[in-house]
Amino acid sequence: MRNTVELNAREYRAADEGAAEANAAEREPLLVLHGLFGNQGNWGLHSKALAERYRVIGIDLRNHGESPHAPELDYQSMAEDVRALIEAREL
Fold first, then answer.
1. Given a cut of 90, is residue 14 above it in pLDDT?
2. Which of 11, 17, 38, 52 could make a disulfide contact with 42, Cβ separation 3.0–4.6 Å?
3. Inside any domain, residue 37
4. d(C-alpha 59, C-alpha 87), whole Å
5. pLDDT band with cut points at 50, 70 and 90 for residue 29
6. Is 13 left (phi over 0), alpha (psi -120 to 50) or beta?
7. Residue 3 belongs to a domain
8. pLDDT at 22 exceeding the cut of 60
């Protein structure tokens, strides 16, 4: 396993935070990954809408958004970072 970085991640909430908030942890997780030169905020509007049905977690990949920068920037390293986040959050 390569060196991983702790990714910046945001959990989105449903517009109606009443009853929806109470069972957010019970919903199926949905990880939202941005594209090249993006960040998790690029999907903000869609993530909020999807939060009505899923536990939506937006992620800034390494060297993007508010996540740490690292010299390695390849698909394998980014995948390992996401795997570490999944394991840390027990998803």
1. no
2. 38
3. yes
4. 14
5. very high
6. beta
7. no
8. no
* Position 80, amino acid: E
- Establish if 1 belongs to a structural domain: no
Q: Domain count for the chain, please give it.
A: 1
In this structure, what token pair is assigned to residue 51?
A: 């939060």
Q: Sign of the CA dihedral 15, 17, 19, 22?
A: positive
- Structure pTM? 0.84
Q: How many whole angstroms separate alpha carbon 42 and alpha carbon 91? A: 23
Instruction: Confirm whether 40 is domain-assigned.
Output: yes
Q: Residue 29 is part of which domain span? A: 8-88
Does 1 or 47 have the greater pLDDT score? 47
Residue 63 backbone class (left: φ over 0; alpha: ψ -120 to 50; beta: rest):
left
